[in-house]
Design a protein that fits this description.
The complex is a heterodimer of chains A (505) and B (119). With 505 residues, chain A is mainly α. Chain A has 23 helices and five strands. The chains are: A mainly alpha (505), B alpha+beta (119). The interface between A and B is large, with 51 and 50 residues.
Chain lengths: 505, 119
């Protein structure tokens, strides 16, 4: 009797255990030169367990099916002028920040996982990383394809990858991904798969994709769904790699804990941009940043770390501060964007009365006390015609590269949090103890940081004046500035008629 | 601690003072005036008199705030890199001890921002 087709489990086993071998002509350490120098000790790669056990043929089949669905939706969105069903065209500021700030991270993740897919010694881990490398490339590509429809009708979406490498606020996600990419493979996967994807990704995807649904953006909802099943596989990989490292050798624990502390803080700081999208840039917000933080980090993250405590892993350092800051960061970051809105690649706008009422309700302890007064003052200035964008450039944190807007929320929320250290005779400034600790552990790495404000002053960004720098960013005159009165706004009014104009005024 | 790397590590300090074309980077933050969300960064010649920092550089940015015109400069409290200090207005930044990437903070007693909100 001839053998029938192998079952899935058997095929996965052959793919991940049978295809690798101990090399003899070359030393294994020469063939896999990157997976030991970080100090992580692996005694048996065969202990690697991938709960998904996906084979290549199954992978292609699943992904092809998802692609077919996604592209059918994108086509129908375009044919039906889906962009006219948005809640408001100002919502697109969030999409502009997404395509310039998040999509290039997907590509960076692709590069990182492609590297790991070659360089991990264990076949099982390599296969999982190869699949994730393809996923990340697919996410980047589907996001570009989906959002390109908006690029036909709106400003600010024309050059995301060029801008990612240059623009002052996009250095935040760029520095985040390059920090991970320039580390060793185990640190990279701890950063991206665990700290970012396992612990924090829901804070990016769930509220953001629901945000798209709340604002009539069915295109973004669709690529979100298409990515979601991949994300659950990625999260599983993140958890698996942590457990695997901790089970393999007890010496791995302090290294993993330090990476956890570092990359939690790094990813959390990056998410300040997401908090801002969620609370201010979405016309209709499904939930506040604070609510999302409570559910996805405090509750779910708390349970996760309780589960991991049996390996000796504790909650990441400064998580209490992150929870205290949940009441503040979106307001602080949107304030800096509004005051520098002549240098952003998306339109800024002050929160409407309706939005401020929502913020008061969602942030009863902080919004009216600390943040409403500044928006009301700016509203009055806009009414009087005296509002001006800020003329100077802000001080930046050496590690997260965000303007130093964060405050001492636990003692005095109106006092900027200043931290400083010296290295090699120079001063380095930080927004927090979290960023300062990261620097002090590896100063040689962060003294190389490409800080946009400093680069402008050094003459490396097209010129000394704002128009020259914006041209170097490839921002057009229509990309920046207030939403009200912009070309996007005018076009939206043309489509939607006078009702919109009255409502917005 | 030092970075753990596979093959050594390149020695590159991107913000050396020599890279600023004769200037040094100076940060100035106005306490209790958070309408300016962060301290401001300026590339300035070390020989610039402190007076010019106040009358030209700081004025160019902070003058947008209604409190700025009401500042009584004789009562201003200055903090340089975490230590309180009294600048000599006629001396240069350098001679006042303002170095590359220094942070100067100033408080303006009696002026606590828009309607006393510290904005």
């Amino acid at each position: 009797m001839t053998a029938k087709r192998l079952n899935l489990r058997k095929r996965y086993e052959l793919l991940t255990r049978g295809m690798g071998w101990e090399t003899t002509h070359q030393k294994m350490d020469d063939v896999f030169p990157y997976d030991t120098f970080e100090g992580i000790k692996i005694t048996d790669w065969d202990k690697w367990e991938d709960p998904f056990r996906l084979t290549m043929d199954a992978y292609w089949k699943f992904q092809a099916e998802k692609e077919r669905k996604l592209y059918a939706v994108i086509d129908s969105f375009a044919q039906n002028n889906g962009q006219t069903n948005l809640a408001d065209a100002s919502y697109l500021s969030a999409i502009k920040l997404f395509i310039t700030g998040v999509t290039p991270i997907e590509y960076a993740a692709h590069r990182g996982f492609a590297h790991l897919g070659r360089h991990f010694r264990g076949d099982g881990a390599r296969i999982a990383c190869q699949m994730q490398a393809i996923d990340e490339l697919r996410h980047q590509q589907t996001q570009v394809h989906t959002i390109s429809h908006y690029n036909k009708h709106f400003d600010g979406l024309h050059d995301p990858f060029h801008q990612f490498d240059r623009v002052w606020y996009l250095s935040v996600p760029k520095a985040f991904s390059e920090d991970a990419l320039s580390a060793g493979p185990f640190e990279f996967i701890t950063s991206i798969s665990f700290a970012f994807e396992y612990v924090l990704t829901n804070l990016l995807f769930v509220p953001f994709m629901s945000g798209a649904a709340y604002n009539g953006d069915m295109a973004t909802v669709t690529f979100g769904f298409s990515a979601q099943s991949d994300e659950s596989r990625h999260m599983t990989l993140g958890l698996e790699i942590i457990k695997f490292m901790l089970e393999q050798h007890e010496d791995n624990l302090p290294i993993v804990q330090r990476w956890m502390d570092k990359h939690f803080w790094r990813a959390y700081r990056l998410l300040a941009l997401v908090a801002t999208m969620q609370d201010y840039m979405l016309t209709n917000s499904p939930m506040s940043w604070k609510e999302a933080w409570e559910v996805y980090f405090v509750e779910n993250g708390g349970a996760l770390f309780e589960d991991l405590s049996r390996y000796g892993l504790r909650m990441p350092k400064y998580h209490e501060l992150a929870t205290a800051e949940a009441d503040h960061i979106s307001h602080q970051v949107w304030s800096v964007f509004c005051s520098l809105g002549n240098a952003t690649g998306f339109h800024t706008f002050l929160p409407t009365e309706e939005k401020m009422a929502w913020l008061s309700e969602k942030y009863p302890d902080t919004f009216d006390k600390y943040y409403r007064p500044r928006f009301e003052y700016w509203h009055q200035q806009q009414k009087d015609g005296t509002f001006e964008f800020q003329k100077g450039l802000p001080q930046l944190c050496q590690v997260c590269q965000i303007p130093m807007v964060f405050t001492e929320v636990q003692t005095d929320p109106m006092q900027i949090s200043y931290r400083v250290t010296e290295h090699g005779g120079d001063k380095y400034h930080f927004c927090s103890d979290g960023c300062k600790d990261i620097f002090e552990h590896e100063p040689e790495k962060y003294v190389q940081a490409w800080l946009p404000v400093h680069q402008i002053f050094q003459g490396n960004c097209g010129g000394e004046t704002l128009p020259e720098v914006l041209e170097w960013y490839k921002f057009t005159a229509e990309d920046s500035g207030n939403y009200i009165g912009s070309r996007d706004h005018a076009r939206w009014q043309e489509w939607k008629g006078a009702d919109v104009a009255v409502k917005q005024a | 601690m030092a970075v753990i790397a596979k093959d050594g590590y390149i020695d590159l300090v991107r913000d050396r003072v020599e890279n600023f074309n004769g200037n040094q980077l100076v940060h100035v933050g106005w306490d209790d005036h958070l309408l300016f969300s962060a301290a401001q960064a300026f590339p300035l010649p070390p020989e610039m008199p402190f007076q010019v920092l106040v009358s030209e550089v700081m004025t160019s940015v902070f003058n947008d705030h209604p409190d700025f015109a009401n500042i009584d400069w004789s009562t201003v409290k200055w903090v340089l890199d975490g230590e309180s200090f009294v600048p000599d207005m006629d001396k240069s930044l350098k001679d006042n001890g303002v170095g590359h990437k220094s942070l100067i903070r100033f408080k303006t007693p009696g002026l606590m921002g828009i309607n006393g909100t510290r904005l």
